[in-house]
Specification:
CATH architecture: Alpha-Beta Barrel
Strand content: 35-45%
Radius of gyration: 13 Å
CATH superfamily: Protein of unknown function DUF952
Mean pLDDT: 89
CATH class: Alpha Beta
Distance between the termini: 11 Å
Low-confidence stretches: none
Length: 112
C-alpha cells in the first residue's frame, strides 16, 4: 500500500461522505484530483493553501482507489499522484484537521 494525501475543505469532505464519492475541484476543471506524497505535503500546503483555514487532510490507501492513479511529473522531475475520476471514500483510511499556524504556514508530523 502507498499512502497518498489530499487537502480539501472540511465541508467538501463532509458532502463526499454523504454521497459516497469525492470529486476534487480540479476534477471538474482539469480532469483529475491533485494529491501528494507525505514528503510533498508541506510544500504543497504552504505554496497553495497558506493562511487557508477549515481544511482537512485525507490519507488515501492507493490500493483501494477504484479510479486510475497516474504519477505525473509537474516540476523538476518530481512526480505527484493524480487520481483520474471520483475517489471512492472507502479508500480514505484517515482524516485529520489541517490548519495553518499563526504565521499561515503548515507543519506535518503525522505518522503515515
Amino acid at each position: 500500500m502507498t499512502t497518498i494525501l489530499h487537502i480539501t475543505r472540511r465541508e467538501q469532505w463532509e458532502q463526499a461522505k454523504v454521497v459516497g464519492t469525492y470529486h476534487g475541484d480540479t476534477l471538474y476543471s482539469e480532469g483529475f484530483i491533485h494529491c501528494s506524497t507525505p514528503t510533498q505535503i508541506i510544500k504543497v500546503a504552504n505554496t497553495f493553501f497558506r493562511y487557508h483555514e477549515g481544511l482537512v487532510l485525507l490519507f488515501i490507501n492507493s490500493d483501494k482507489v477504484q479510479a486510475e492513479i497516474r504519477y505525473e511529473c509537474v516540476e523538476e522531475g518530481e512526480q505527484f499522484p493524480h487520481i483520474y475520476g471520483a475517489l471512492n471514500i472507502d479508500a480514505v483510511f484517515k482524516v485529520i484537521n489541517f490548519e495553518p499556524g499563526e504565521d499561515g504556514l503548515f507543519t506535518f508530523s503525522e505518522k503515515v
